Amino acid sequence: MSAANTPIASAARRTCGGRRVVADLQHAVRGNLPDKYRAYAQQINDQSEQLMTLRGLFRLKSAEEMGRKPVPLEEVGAGRQHRAGASRRAP
Q1: What is the distance between the alpha carbons of residues 78 and 28, in angstroms, rounded to a whole number?
Q2: % helix, strand, coil for the chain, step of 5
Q3: Domain tally for the chain?
Q4: Would residue 78 count as lying in a domain?
């Protein structure tokens, strides 16, 4: 699957209506440029709010906002790895 045909690229084209946004994402990923990715993410977030998408209507609260103590990253266990094509079976 080429980078232009990934689900993320498809979503970026639909929500932001532009190849420029997809190009920004590709540039960030291919060049391993965190600042470029942050700029891309900001474009997506701004569009989500402006277009009143469902994603743009929600905001995650921090642990502090919920009156809870954040869990240190070192204490978080590794998640299960999902295998592509693996079927989900009942236990």
Answers
A1: 26
A2: 55, 0, 45
A3: 1
A4: no
Please report how many Cα atoms fall inside a 13 Å half-sphere around the Cα of residue 33, on the Cβ side.
14
Which alpha helices (DSSP H) does 1-91 contain, by range?
Answer: 7-16, 19-30, 34-50
Domain membership of residue 13 as a residue range: 1-54
Going by C-beta distance under 8 Å and a sequence separation of 6 or more, which residues neighbour residue 53? 15, 47
The Cα 25–Cα 44 span in angstroms is 10
Give the global pTM: 0.43
Share of the chain above pLDDT 90, in %: 16
- 83 in a structural domain: no
Q: Is residue 39 part of a domain?
A: yes
Q: What is the pLDDT of residues 10-21, one digit of tens each?
A: 555 554 456 777
Residues in the chain: 91
**Cα separation, 6 vs 3, whole angstroms:** 6
Q: Is residue 73 in a domain?
A: no
